[in-house]
Design brief:
The chain is mainly beta. The chain contains 2 helices and 13 strands; from the N terminus they run H-E-E-E-H-E-E-E-E-E-E-E-E-E-E.
Length: about 240
């Protein structure tokens, strides 16, 4: 645990050093978040994007106002499974929705954000148990800096009937550093805490994103230090802003 807190302190100190630079308008109002986690910035009003992550996770993000945004997503390639696997004879389509509210707190440098996820499955059949799997994940956090250079701290509270209410806590630390006019380095640190078992594990996400007015892409890797063998999981996301 001491090593964990030491790493958290060093991470925040490092990110704080570069979160001072001013925001330069490079079209990143359409790309406020990190590789996998959230910042407290919202999409600008009437701006958004469509993104495709790795093996076909599709998301639509949209800014209703400068401080309220929504996200809906699905994985349409899942519908191909019954066609490829003979044992799978039921069609089921996962989907999720997210809402986020953002608010400036101090001198346009400190922002607060809160929201939640709803995750379920669309299916033409009812499971034997008579229930469709559902999950909820409220979260909240703060972000310091600009859209170009910032650090964020978030707390996620995933819950469902399968895992139980309030049985897992997720601490998310992230930072973004502008490198060139359209490219940013991104680092994320995620700590999953199992409350009842009093145990947890860590995931580290490293990568970058390149944003252009007409297109963008994220690229990086997810590392789980306790995994054996340690195999990085790639992140590749294509983004089309509007």
């Amino acid at each position: 645990m001491k090593k964990l807190f030491t790493l958290l302190i060093l991470w925040n100190a490092f990110m704080f050093l570069f979160a001072q630079e001013k925001y330069s308008k490079t079209g990143i109002e359409n790309f406020p978040d990190y590789l996998l986690g959230n910042s407290s910035f919202s999409y600008k009003k009437n701006h958004g994007n469509v993104s495709i992550l790795d093996v076909g996770l599709v998301d639509l993000n949209y800014g209703i106002t400068d401080y309220i945004s929504v996200d809906i997503g699905t994985a349409p390639l899942v519908l191909l499974i019954p066609l490829l696997v003979s044992e799978a004879n039921n069609y089921a389509l996962p989907f999720w929705a997210k809402a986020k509210i953002s608010a400036p707190l101090w001198q346009k440098k400190l922002y607060a954000g809160a929201g939640g996820y709803y995750i379920s499955i669309l299916s033409y059949y009812t499971p034997k148990e008579g229930k469709v799997p559902k999950a909820y994940m409220p979260y909240g956090g703060i972000t310091y800096g600009s859209r170009d250079n910032n650090i964020s701290v978030n707390l996620y509270l995933p819950a469902s009937e399968e895992i139980g209410m309030n049985s897992i806590r997720v601490l998310h630390l992230a930072g973004k550093k502008k490198w060139k006019s359209h490219t940013h380095f991104i680092g994320e640190f995620v700590y999953f805490r199992k409350v009842k078992e009093k145990s947890g594990y860590i995931a580290v996400i490293l990568g970058a994103n390149t944003k252009r007015p007409k297109a963008g892409w994220d690229y990086g890797f997810v590392f789980i230090p306790d995994a054996d063998p340690l195999i990085p999981v790639p992140i590749i996301r294509l983004i089309y802003p509007f």
